[in-house]
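Quick one, tokens below:
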């Protein structure tokens, strides 16, 4: 066998392609995990900033009330933001208001 023939045989090997595909998927997964980790750090930083703001607006005497208002406000913001993201990334998905009016 010639060296070129051996190289071609190695390139055609299915297990080699499987290993290369696995390496690509591993890289994609690692990038996703790193980006998600940075997103978590960012979210925690914003959480601390918003909580500090609410502590100023609602002093310690109304701390419990401030925490509930904070939780409700953040919930409303995140639900609306998630809904907008879903519509942005899946434009074929009709908003709930349009679905109700069509029925």
């Amino acid at each position: 066998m010639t060296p070129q023939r051996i190289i071609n045989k190695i390139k055609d090997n299915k297990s080699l392609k499987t290993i290369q595909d696995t390496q690509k998927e591993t890289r994609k997964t690692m990038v996703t995990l790193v980006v998600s980790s940075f997103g978590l750090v960012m979210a925690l930083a914003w959480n601390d900033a918003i909580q500090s703001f609410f502590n100023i607006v609602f002093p310690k005497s109304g701390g419990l009330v401030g925490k509930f208002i904070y939780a409700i406000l953040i919930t409303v913001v995140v639900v609306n933001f998630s809904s907008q993201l879903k519509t942005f990334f899946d434009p074929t998905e009709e908003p709930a208001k349009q679905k109700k009016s069509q029925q």
